[in-house]
Amino acid sequence: MQSPQTPPFDGKAFVHTLTTSPGVYRYFDADGELLYVGKAGNLKKRVGSYFLKPRMEPRIGAMVAQIARCEITVTRTEGEALLLESQLIKSLKPRYNILLRDDKSYPYIYLSGGEDYPRLAFHRGAKNLKGRFFGPYPSAFAVRESLNLMQKLFKVRQCEDSYFRNRSRPCLQHQIGRCTAPCVGLISVEDYRNDVRHAEMFLEGRSSAVIDELAAAMEKAAVELNFERAAALRDQVAALRKLQAQHHVQGASADMDVVACRIEGGMACVSVLFFRNGISLGTRDFFPRLALDAAPADVLAQFIAQYYLERPVPREIILCEAIPDQALLAQVLCEQAGHGVEIKSSVRGERARFLQMAERNAQASLTSRLASRQTLGARFDDLQKLLELAEPPRRIECFDISHTMGEATVASCVVFGPEGPEKSHYRRFNIAGITPGDDYAAMHQALTRRFRKVAAGEGAKPDVLLIDGGGGQVAQALDVLTELGVAGIQVVGVAKGPGRRAGEETLVLANSGREIHPGSASPALHLVAAVRDEAHRFAISGHRKRREKARERSILEEVPGIGARRRAALLKAFGGLAGVEAAGVEELASIKGIDRGLAERIYAALHG
């Protein structure tokens, strides 16, 4: 006997039960999938607009026809509703909402704290280290360019702490005039801290104050007849003034973002120009997922709410057009940032020029992206024909192995879809428990770890599985899939051609054992090669990180009683680990902080 069918959702009746308070509403379909998240200053009025209007836009009608359930959350203010809406959209990714796909954390310049000789460094991720963070910057290139300038201007060290503590003589950076060699005491703590203070002032945007201080110090050095010092300060002041003239943007606010949006071919591009301390930090483009028939104003409103939800907010945001709830959004961002925030869409003069730049950049990036997507679509279609698939593949995975003579073996898994690389799905596997250099065993282990989850009903299954290698590696893939009972995957080996020349690869079809030579003109082979090369790059970078981490560990770290300071003292006294290994117990015990018992333990650890 069949269960009675669930009655359709009665939107009109539901509206009569709602409050007039502000809040957030969520629509679900019959399968429980979230369709849409929205906010309202008056829930009854806003939700009623979906069910009480005689006519509505086609995209709204298509969504309303699928609604089987509605949930609401009442908030105290409309501003709270706006924040909650943005949080839910980012975390739940509803089908009909505009979604900012921006999973990357932004890079910062990090100045370490709690040290006599702090370092400047590139930083991405959680800001939980002791010290100060400057940024965020729009790209890694902008950070590295700034760090390069800082090295020329203030000569603050940028080396890793492990490298810094183990130096016995100045490095190349000192020799080319980019570091004052604090590692070997060629600069006093006081003078170094003064350089650090000037670097901080510069990063805060107070470059004029830095120039004034340095000019005063130059005059003082000249009066004291310290002409070498005066000449060095003169050159530093000249470099700062030149930099200030090159990078200061006339008409730019101290902290300002200029945002433009363009929509074409079912795709949107939002381009942002970043200005901090009156200096342009460059641009960054975003391609949010569109709701049906979304307008630029809708995209901008969702973009601003989602983008600045967890990021520092500038004092001025310039938009290419007015957005819904603009005043409310400015008020919410102001409360979040703790300072005044202006959102403007009608500007003149230099700001209008910046807006034109952002609009041109958005259009150019969108045109390029559309062309790339069309090319990628053609390649996927050609791969379907080449592999004789029923339809174009939606998910391609590729595995590769990297090691150095068996050391620090790493397997990579990269994922491509119709939109290109899906980097949030990339995975690396640190391989252990195999004979060093056994690539077959490494591939078997990586594939087993990946597809064990698929066999358990977890995670997505690829349509095409590419293996970097020939018949032997393909056999490993087939063995794993057979062992785990995973079917329906086209396994393809990518074997290098004669002379390892690009375009001459051989594709080994696992199911039939057939070999294909598509040739360098094949769009399908271009796609396969791009995926294979990305897997290769991802494996090598993971292997290098693992290898460097292993080699950074000194055997001294494994000796009980040896901390960072004692280890640094030993390495400095004997000129490195080789010198420590050559030293006897008496020589080791002569170092401050090393008693005879500890010296004997060190000697025993180093000599087995």
Quick summary:
By secondary structure, the chain is of the alpha+beta class.
Please provide a written account of the structure.
- The longest helix is centred in the middle third of the chain and has 39 residues, at 349-387.
- Strands 12, 13, 14, 15, 16, 17, 18 and 19 form an eight-stranded mixed beta sheet that branches. A five-stranded mixed beta sheet has the order 9-8-7-10-11, sandwiched between helices.
- The model has no long low-confidence stretch (mean pLDDT 85).
- The protein contains 20 helices and 19 strands.
- It is α+β, with helices and mostly antiparallel strands.
- It is globular and about 90 Å long.
Rounded to an integer in angstroms, the radius of gyration calculated over CA atoms is 30 Å
- Tally of DSSP β-strands: 19
Beta-strand level of the residues, as a percent range?
Answer: 15-25%
**Shape from CA axes?**
globular
Helix content: 40-55%
Arithmetic mean of pLDDT: 85
Distance between the termini: 77 Å
> What ranges have pLDDT less than 50 throughout 5 or more consecutive residues?
none
Number of helices: 20
Protein name: UvrABC system protein C
Keywords: Cytoplasm, DNA damage, DNA excision, DNA repair, Excision nuclease, Hydrolase, SOS response
Subcellular location: Cytoplasm
Subunit structure: Interacts with UvrB in an incision complex.
